[in-house]
Structure formats: C-alpha cells, structure tokens
Amino acid sequence: MGYQKALLTVQQMGEADRNAIASGISSIELMENAGQAVAHEIQQRWTPSSVVVLCGPGSNGGDGFVTARLLANAGWIVRIALLGSFEHLSGAAKHHAELWLGAVVPLDPSVLAGTMLVVDAIFGAGLDRVLEGVAKETLALATKRGMPIVAVDVPSGLMGNTGESLGAVGAILTVTFFRKKPGHLLLPGRTLCGEVVVADIGIPGSVLSVIDPDTFENAPELWLAELPRPHEGSNKYTRGHALISGGYPMTGAARMAAHAAARAGSGLTTIAVPEIALPIYAAALTSILVHPLVKPDDFDFLLNDRRFLALLIGPGSGTGEETRCRALAMLNSGRSTVIDADAITAFKGDPVELFKAITGTCILTPHEGEFNRLFDASGDKLTRTRNAARMSGAIIILKGSDTVIAAPDGRVIINANAPPTLATAGAGDVLGGIVLGLLVQGMDPFLAAAAAVWLHGEAANQFGPGLMAEDLPDLLPAVFRKLYE
Predict the structure, then answer these.
(1) Residue 405 — φ and ψ, nearest 5°?
(2) pLDDT at site 128
(3) pLDDT score recorded for residue 232
(4) Which 3 state secondary structure label does DSSP give 51?
(5) How far apart are CA 160 and CA 181, in angstroms?
(6) Is the omega angle on the peptide bond into residue 188 within 30 degrees of 0, that is, cis?
(7) How far is CA 103 from CA 53, 80, 100, in A?
(8) DSSP SS3 for 343
(9) 389: number of CA atoms within 13 Å, CB side?
(10) Closest C-alpha among 76, 74, 99 to residue 86
(11) Which of 160, 198, 207, 386 has the most crowded CB, counting CB atoms within 10 A?
C-alpha cells in the first residue's frame, strides 16, 4: 500500500523528524521550512495586515517564530505572544526565537486587540492534556470575535492521534508537515482543522519505510490498481454471481443493495426472498434475479450452488433467529460474506458465536449503534475499530462521516469524502451492495471495502443536495468512468 496517503501518529511523526535529522537535515532547517510553509499559505490567502502569532514553549512555538519573522519581512504588522518565558526555550526553537527582532509579549487575551488574523502555534499535537489557562482563554476569545485562526500542525487542544478535542477551537486553515495525522480526518478534528494543507519541509519519503505506517487516508491511489475493470473477454459469469438474502416486509433495502451490487460490476445478482414477497421484488426488479424461498431448506440449497461467489445479508432482513442462522450458514459456506444492518444486530446476545464462525473473508458494516451491540464502545473510534477487527477476524467498516475501515492484521483506512447528504435512510444498504459487487469480482477484501466507501461518498458528492439512497447506484457509472480515465 502506497505511503503517499499514510497517516502518522504523533509518535511516528517524531520518529520521522529524528530520522530526517539523522540523514543530515538539521532541526533548525526543518523548523525554518515549517514556518516558511505556514507563512506561504497565509500569504496565498490574505493580503498583508495585522497578525498575532501565539507561540508555545516547544517546537510548535519555534515554527511560530519563523512564521512571524517571514511575515514581517513581507510587510505584515506582526506581534508575537509567548506562553511561558523566553529563557525556557531551547534547541531549534530558541535559535529561531533569537532571530526575531521585534517585541515578545506574554500570551493573554489582550494581545488580540487590533488584530485581523491569529496564528495558533501554541502546542500543536504536542499537547496531551486539556487546553486550559490563558491559551484556552485567548483562543476562545478569538473565536468569539470571529477572527480567522491559522493552526500550525493541529489546533492546540486537538489530539493528533484520535481527532478528540480537549478544548480546541476551530481553525480556518491548518498547515501540517510531511503527512497528515489521524486527527486531521477523524471527527471532530476534521471539522476543527478547517482546510488542511500538508507541506513538504524536507523530510525524505524514505523514512516511511523505517516507520512502516499502518494507517492511511482513503483515496483511489490505495486501490485503483486493484479495481475490477471489464475487458474484452468478460461475460456475466466471469464478473461473478452475487447472492443477497432479501427480507420481508422491508423489501426496499435489499433491492437497493442489489441495484448497487450490479452497478458496482456484479455480472449476476440474485436476491433470495420469502415466497410471499416474490411479487414485490419481481415487479420492482428487471436485471436482478429473484429466487423465491418456499421450503425451509431452500436457502441452504441455494448456498450449495458454487456459482455464488460472494454473499450479503442484513438489509431489511429482520433481527430474528432466521437471520442469525442464515448469516452463520453463509459464513460456513466459505464464500466472502458481507454482514450488514439487521444481521449484525441478530448477534447482539452472543457476538462470540458470530466471531467463531468467521474463518474466511467477512466484512461487517455497522453504524455506531450496531457496533456497540457487538463490541466495546469505549475509547476513540480508530482504536475501537482496530480492536474490533482483531477480535472478530472480520474487516470492519465503522460507518459515519469519518468512516473507519480496519483489517484484522491492524491496517486501517480512514475515509473523509462523505458529504452530510449521505445521512439518509438506505445509504448503508447501498454501501453494502457496492462492497458485494466488488468482492464478487475478486477484489482484495480490504481494498474492496475501502474502494466501496470512497465510491459511495463520491457518488453522493456528484449528486449534491436532495440526495436519496436510491439515487446512489445510478451515480456510480460516472464515478467509475472518471476513475478508469
């Protein structure tokens, strides 16, 4: 998996800095480059005016001193407010502070008077406790006054590893370095960071081979080479036959999932439905095959057909014993299985039974409520999802505006392209269908899960306001077309 979209923890970013310094780049140079990047991004967006740079006692503050010096050289009216004493600065931060020829005043809310722009270089990701005191008061007042804030690395009070806020206020722009951190994508961090710019400060990409990151931002670069594409020798059988367990009386969910699977490339898609529901499904579907289940063992008979390569259960299936038994039968068949919605909740009373049955490829697609019925709900989203994947042996897609996809081996992909319009009934059913459609064509399961989540978000972005879940499958062809081009 390419390192271009790697996300680094605070600790890994520190390791990247150390490795860069060991390769011959000084910490003074890295800090100069960081401050230069911040100053450059500011000058790209605002004309010279008055700015106050809030500096902390560590490296983030050193970046702030460089930013201030370069903005002043470019004709800005710059003031620096420092948290703590000048004498306590050390290393590269002290070096750059000594290059500042202007005044340095103590950091407190009064420094905001007459200022048009605020640079938050107080703590960045170096803070591991609640933001408090004059730093919190000053940033809070800036927000109250509607002053634009530019954050260096991350807004002070935002946890870089988790996206949790311990007193952070929102920035309009965040400039970070080398690679993003998980906190730039996970909520509420993504919202608090505003626009995020990743600046090259001279750290060689080779340091990533030493760090070997296992967390990534979802993007086509991760999975495009594996995305199934029709070719001249393709036919409906080579593109795979998918099977969906359809429910009754909630029939719409499975129908949307089937439509999505077909749009995602499934050569054949069959829904197995209760006999009483056959007229509803048959009247509403044309290219989707509908198989009535008349006798109690009809579903098991279907599973004996080895032409079905991937399976989905959950959308509209109900949470009863029948759903639980069908899910177990699917898993025991050895085929790739997607378990969604009701089929997740069906194991609320005994999640271990589900986990024991997962011996092959299984993708669970819970939202937060469903996740909490099977797994430990404590801790941050990234850790919870990673632990759930390891515990269950399944790939977990924990849905939300910041969907997290985790594999049992510890790899994680965070998605950030989902618009708020996806918060609509049935959108999750469509996602399950897209996953199924990619799986049935033989795509690597972890990458299929990531691709499906990104495609789902991109389709919604193409539509805009007024989106309904049933719109999503028919938006996929345009998204695929752009990717193939």
Answers:
(1) -115, 120
(2) 86
(3) 86
(4) strand
(5) 6
(6) yes
(7) 12, 7, 8
(8) helix
(9) 23
(10) 99
(11) 160
Per the CB < 8 A criterion, the answer to whether 455 and 218 are in contact is no
Cα–Cα distance, 375 to 388 (Å, whole number):
6
pLDDT value, residue 420: 96
d(CA 356, CA 386): 18
Q: Which domain holds residue 153?
A: 3-216
Indicate the pairing of strand 77-82 with strand 104-106: parallel
Q: Residue 269's domain is classified under what CATH number?
A: 3.40.1190.20
In Å, what is the CA distance from 18 to each residue of 30, 179, 213, 339?
A: 11, 15, 16, 43
Nearest to 367 by CA among 432, 416, 454: 432
Please answer whether residues 208 and 5 qualify as being in contact, where contact means their C-beta atoms are separated by less than 8 angstroms: no
Among 172, 195, 216, the domain boundary falls at 216
Q: What is the pLDDT of residue 316?
A: 96
CATH number of the domain at 66, please.
Answer: 3.40.50.10260
Cis geometry, peptide bond prior to residue 274 (ω within 30 degrees of 0): no
pLDDT at 233: 83
Residue 257 and residue 287 in one domain: yes
pLDDT digits (tens, 9 = 90+) for 134-171: 999 999 999 999 999 999 999 999 999 999 999 999 99
Per-residue tokens: 263: 């749009």
206 lies in the same domain as 267: no
Tokens representing residue 306 in the block: 């080895």
By the 8 A CB rule, do 451 and 443 touch? Answer: yes
Quick one: 396 and 328 in the same domain? yes
Positive or negative, the CA dihedral 13, 19, 22, 23 is negative
Residue with tokens 């069906």: 346
H/E stretch holding 455 reads helix 445-463
336 and 287 part of one domain: yes
Q: What pLDDT, on a 0 to 100 scale, did the predictor assign at position 230? A: 87
Which pLDDT does position 21 carry in this prediction? 97
Helix (H, G, I), strand (E, B) or coil at 353: helix
Regarding beta strands 173-177 and 149-152, do their DSSP bridges make them parallel or antiparallel, or are they unpaired?
parallel
Helix (H) or strand (E) holding 308: strand 308-313
Total number of domains in the chain: 2
Domain end point (choices 216, 245, 275): 216
Residue 397, pLDDT score? 98
Residues 336 and 363 in one domain: yes
Co-location of 447 and 397 in the same domain: yes
For residue 48, give the DSSP letter: S
13, 140: one domain: yes
Q: Judge if 35 and 80 occupy the same domain.
A: yes
Which regions in the chain score pLDDT beneath 70? none
Give the separation between CA 399 and CA 421, rounded to whole angstroms.
14
